[in-house]
What we know:
mainly alpha
Amino acid sequence: MNTKEKIxxxxxxxxxxxxxxxxxxxxxxxxxxxxKASIYSHFKSREDLINQMFDYGQSLIKKESSETKLTKKDxxxxxKSLTFWFFNLLQEDEIEQYYKVLEANKFYRxxxxxxxxxxxxxxxxxxEVFIDFFVQTGQLKVENSEFAANLFSSALLNLIEELFVxxxxxxxxxxxxxxxxxxxxxxxxxxxxxxxxxxxxT
Length: 202
């Protein structure tokens, strides 16, 4: 890892813990073991560092987004797989830090708002691909796959935000999976009456 990346990762961690506007460049430099002035050899300004931090976060998301694949099993199984993938993705150390920074700054910074929208659109578009497949195969009865995907993802994201708050309050993350499973089951039940297979966590 080069010095520039160390600065970004250190700044991101501090921003998630302390708040973006409270991060000290001096403390960032100290943690990276460089002089504060050295930061400016990698970034034009503090704002440039912030913007590149946002770009770094998006690159992490794109790198992990190839992990979701449609195996063409039943709708509940596939949507739970997708849900657990996204939920677990947002808990990976740096991505969780990045997501917290986006959420905390979405009303104050246009780039945070745009990047959060892009992150959520990535998940919603995956939902649409999955749902549309099961509509085409007759396993889900949905007139508008895009609408159904937006309904599924927006409500799920609200649930995930709630679960993250509970996680910060000390609840064990393993206890949340049944709530995610229940959400998917209820969603699928809206659009099909066919029996569904049990989903096993691996």
